[in-house]
């Protein structure tokens, strides 16, 4: 029932924390939030609403070490109450992504949450299973709607997000992003990567400011660097779409990707966004003839290492062990997989 007894609870299993709010308290603070007409066209969270949500989050004692959770909880309350209203319910969140490492965990959170809540509200529905599993996919229009809601959640967490992270989480595969325009790339073969989280905190705003200062000191040189980065990205996106049908074609494709990644990393060093911890990862992977580049804003954060299809498990274990000995965390991933999937029951 709307705003009657009961409570809204969110259980963040990975951090071992759970939070709940009585429905009556939510209704009192936010009023009648869910309006059926707006489910198809979400409106941004108003400053007044955001302030009311922040006060609701502050009712809980969040440990100082996990203070970054408060933005995620604000996004949760906004999405939950906007889509389902102030009716009781419990949401359990578990994730295999490290938080705050620049890997888009906040977008994955916003997309999963929006997908689940819109399904519960009966606004979107799954169609077609994923090959022999109990997971189901959404149609394109429904994915678009989930993405629009998730973007509103991302705005609460990040202020001015580009919309790339939530789009990748929603639609899957790979995305080319240029001047605000997203193009879906059809990746013929998933690309295997090792992600190394250097666990060095990074400050995106300061790094970006540093790049533009360098650009104003050396306008011509930096313009050439930016032009080269653009050319490399364009070239990479066309290679990604090539379907390699046998091992020889696959190896040739991966060698081209590796060369472009290596060139890109050199240009990022020119921009001044590298960091000692990133250089350590580059040195360690180079010993095994593997190519790496920083990802995200740089200045610590994460590094991507291309894993060729034919690389032996032993070499991968060795390089992972060496990276972990420096106190880094490694994740083996495939780039270009499925987007949002729904599992019911």
From TrEMBL:
Domain of life according to the entry: Eukaryota
- EC class of the enzyme, as a word: transferase
Pathway given in the UniProt record? Isoprenoid biosynthesis; isopentenyl diphosphate biosynthesis via mevalonate pathway; isopentenyl diphosphate from (R)-mevalonate: step 1/3
Give the UniProt entry's GO cellular component terms: cytosol
Which InterPro entries does the UniProt record give?
GHMP_kinase_C_dom (IPR013750), GHMP_kinase_C_sf (IPR036554), GHMP_kinase_N_dom (IPR006204), GHMP_knse_ATP-bd_CS (IPR006203), Mev_gal_kin (IPR006205), Ribosomal_Su5_D2-typ_SF (IPR020568), Ribsml_uS5_D2-typ_fold_subgr (IPR014721)
| Record keywords, A-Z | ATP-binding, Cytoplasm, Kinase, Lipid biosynthesis, Lipid metabolism, Magnesium, Metal-binding, Nucleotide-binding, Steroid biosynthesis, Steroid metabolism, Sterol biosynthesis, Sterol metabolism, Transferase
Does Transferase appear among the keywords? Answer: yes
Annotated GHMP kinase C-terminal domain ranges read: 255-309
Q: Which Pfam family, an example, fits this chain?
A: GHMP_kinases_C
Ranges for domain GHMP kinase N-terminal come to 85-172
Q: Where in the cell is it found?
A: Cytoplasm
Note whether Protein biosynthesis occurs among the keywords: no
Which GO biological process entries does UniProt record here?
A: isopentenyl diphosphate biosynthetic process, mevalonate pathway; sterol biosynthetic process
Q: Give the EC number.
A: 2.7.1.36
One annotated GO molecular function is: mevalonate kinase activity
Q: Entry's PROSITE patterns?
A: GHMP_KINASES_ATP
Reaction catalysed by this chain? (R)-mevalonate + ATP = (R)-5-phosphomevalonate + ADP + H(+)
By sequence similarity, the record places it as follows:
Belongs to the GHMP kinase family. Mevalonate kinase subfamily.
Q: What is this protein called?
A: Mevalonate kinase
